[in-house]
Amino acid sequence: MSNPVLVCALRRINAFKVLADALKRITQCREKLSKSWSLLQTVMALTPEVTVRQAILFFTEADFVTDDGNFLKFLPQNVQCHLLKSIRFSYLVGESQRCHAESLFTYLQTGAQILCTVLLVKPGAWSHNLGRILRKLDLEKFSVVGMKHVNLEPDTALGLLSSEVKQDPAVLEAHCTYLTSGAALVLCLQRPNAVKKLIDLLGPEDPKLAQALDPFLWRAQYGISTVQNGFYGSKSYQIAVRDMKLFFPEGLCCAECQTLEEEEV
Predict the structure, then answer these.
(1) Residue 104 or residue 195, greater confidence
(2) 86, 120, 222, 248 — which has fewest CB within 10 A?
(3) In the chain, domain spans
C-alpha cells in the first residue's frame, strides 16, 4: 500500500485472452533482459462480470463518457509505449462517437456484439455447393448481408494471402493462379462474434489437418489441398473491415450494420 498502482480499463475484441497473452510476453521479456528488474505484478479481471465489479471500485460513469482521450499524456512514457505498442488496445474513452454515448457497465452486460465478417468461397468450391453452404450458414445463425461473385485481380488475390505464403515464391504463385482462375463468391456475414465463429467453422487452412481435427470443419469437407482449401475468411476484425471495404464499397443491405460508417469516423 506504500506505492501507487495503475488501473486501466481496456477494450477490444477477445480482450481477456489478448491481454493475458500480452502481459505474459511483457513479463517474459523483462525477465530475460535483467534479473534485477522488478517483475511486472498484475491483477486482471477474467470475466465481464468480474470486470464490472472491479470497474465500479475505481471508476465512475463520468470517467468513461468523455470527449477527451488525452489522458495518456498523464502516464509515464514507458507505460504509454507498452500499452500502445505491445498490448495495442483501444481505450474506452475517445474511441468512437458510439463510445462517448454509451455506459461502460451497460456495454459489458449486453453480451456479444453483432459484427460482420467476410467469407470468400474460392473458385470451384461454390458452384456445386452453394445451397449446402448457405444452409450451413443459416444453421450457425449467420445472416448474409452482402453477396457477389467476382473475378479476382492478381493484386486483390495477393492482398488476401498471409505473410507465410508470400515467403515462398512457388507457393505464392500457386495461390494467386488458383484464386484468379475463375469466379469466386464473396459473402458478408453478420452475427454475434462473427469473425471468430467463422474462423472456428472453417478450421485449419490445410484440409488434411482439418480432417484430422474434425471432419465436420468446412475445409475438411470442401478442401482438396492447402491451395484449393475451399474458403478464405477474415482472420480478425480489422481485416474484416478491410475486406468489407474492398468487396462491398457500395455498402451493405443491413440497416443496423454500422461497421463501415463507424470505421470512417
Answers:
(1) 195
(2) 86
(3) 15-108, 114-248
